[in-house]
Amino acid sequence: MEPRLVGPGPYRATRLWSEIIELFRAGMPLRKHRCRFKSYERCFKASEAVDCLHELLGCNQNFGPEVTRDQTVKLLKKFLKNHVIEDIKGRWGKEDFEDDSHLYRFPPSSPLKSYPKKPSCGKEVIKFPDWNEPKAGTSQEHIPVKSMTMNSEMWYKRHSIAIGEVPACKLVFRRELTQTNIEEIWKSMTLLRLQKVLGLDSLDEVLDTKLVNSKHIVQNVYNVNKQGIVTLEDKSKELPHWILSAMKCLANWPSCSDLKQPTYSGFERDVFRTIVDYFGQMKEPLLTFHFFDVFVSVLGLLQRPCKAVEALQISCLLLPPENRKRLQLLVRMMARINLNQDLPPLSESLRTRTLMVQTFSRCILCSKDEIDLDELLAAKLVSFLMDNYQQILSVPSALKSSIEDHVVHLQRVQIKYAGADSAAMLPPPSFCHQISTDEFEYQRATGSQEPLAALLEEIVMNKEISVKNKKKKLKQFQKSYPEVYRVRFPTPETEAVLFPEKNKQKPPILMWALKKPFQPFHRTRSFRM
């Protein structure tokens, strides 16, 4: 069975769990083993299972070669707890799996999980705020249209060469945007961009959009220092000074200005242990429980690094400002420690990079409910964060520019022509306010047909122009505006009334010729006198 890439979308963790189980069951060699003078068919040793699964995870593009043997053992513990495997006596349910020679087998029942059913939180369509709704006591349903008045001569000059539409126009004065309006626009456009980058039809299965705080997005974008780190309005939520000093000490080792470094051996490990203890006691990970499914979905884009970076940029904007700041400081420290050749090893058994990923992955990403692949997924994400933290934890400039341009567009006074497609003027179309067909017909009639009807009536009632010119103008008007013309002259009879025919008596035809009989022509000769 060939491994396949599990892309972003709902229930990605469950799909990955099923993928790994299927690969493990298909790739694990089963043979006969002896234990305590007894033979057991179709089973395997624990160490063989670790070897096989570790190789499968390392070759799988959903996880990669950074998966350690220790992480593989932890995953097999969960396999035993969830009855993916059982010991040769049929026992399971505990995480007492060890990397040894104990014998295990696959149970006859299917270990695959069904997709979880999420609590219904109401399917919220991502839409832009109705900030242009009228205040109490006022009505903005029909924006008044200032009609263009022109006499018949002006109309004739304008239409003498080619008949074109004469649209009425109006100035649209936008209501002043409040801070709340701007925050809601930021939320709407940010979520729409995230949905597009993830390639999903809807964010409903990976995110409850009602839990996204629009204020957090705006604060994460604009309240930053020169280094791009978020500045908090509530200083009580800042990291303690002693933790900041410890993080700076290791990040800038051996040159640290905030702390007088003792000379005893192992000092750097004590500082590192202090940082680990502080972040390990947090009740919620930095990426929060609410956004777990979003970040797991982003992992499906790691084969396309540019898309993954943009998706993580946008997702990290949704975090509370205090979480985003702590994430920025922590990941920056981890990356600097990993690249610092002057820092003594912080572990005797693990490489520095592996130590950083394994130590801090759970305090960065984990699920509120127990998810079997939490540790592997978190390690994958944290590893990618360390490699691209400068881009991921910065404000996406393209998104910022597009939203700011749209806010300016909404505040600008515009000239609008009646009957024109206003939706084409407002990017994106989700900001437009949909109206009914009756409302559209009413606006079209009041916005353009009434001035044209008045112009037609002026042509009809004008007695100063000749009948010939009047007929010519009416014919031009009928060709350009047949609907308006049909309202004024619904039948040929109504049009005929305007030009009554005169009763003319036809002259008698050749009456003089009928009085004499026809006589042939006779040629005569003239004589000279």
Q: Could you describe the largest sheet, including whether it forms a barrel?
A: 4 strands, antiparallel
- Under CATH, the homologous superfamily of the domain at 181-405 reads Rho GTPase activation protein
Strand content: under 5%
Sequence stretches where pLDDT stays below 50 over 5 or more residues: 120-125, 131-147, 422-433
Structural class by SSE content: mainly alpha
Identify the CATH architecture of the domain at 181-405.
Orthogonal Bundle
Domain Rho-GAP: 201-393
Protein name: DEP domain-containing protein 1B
Organism: Origma solitaria
GO molecular function: GTPase activator activity
Word description of this protein:
One of its GO terms (molecular function) is GTPase activator activity. Residues 201-393 form the Rho-GAP domain. Keywords: GTPase activation. This is DEP domain-containing protein 1B. The protein is mostly helical and 529 residues long. Among the domains are: 12-105, Orthogonal Bundle (Arc Repressor Mutant, subunit A), CATH 1.10.10; 181-405, Phosphatidylinositol 3-kinase, Chain A (Orthogonal Bundle), CATH 1.10.555.10. It has 20 helices and 6 strands. The strands form 2 sheets. The protein has a 4-stranded antiparallel β-sheet with strand order 1-2-4-3. Strands 5-6 form a two-stranded antiparallel sheet. A hairpin with a 2-residue loop joins strand 1 (31-35) and strand 2. Helix 2 (46-59) packs across helix 3. It is elongated and about 125 Å long. The N and C termini lie far apart (136 Å). Mean pLDDT is 78; it is low at 120-125, 131-147 and 422-433.
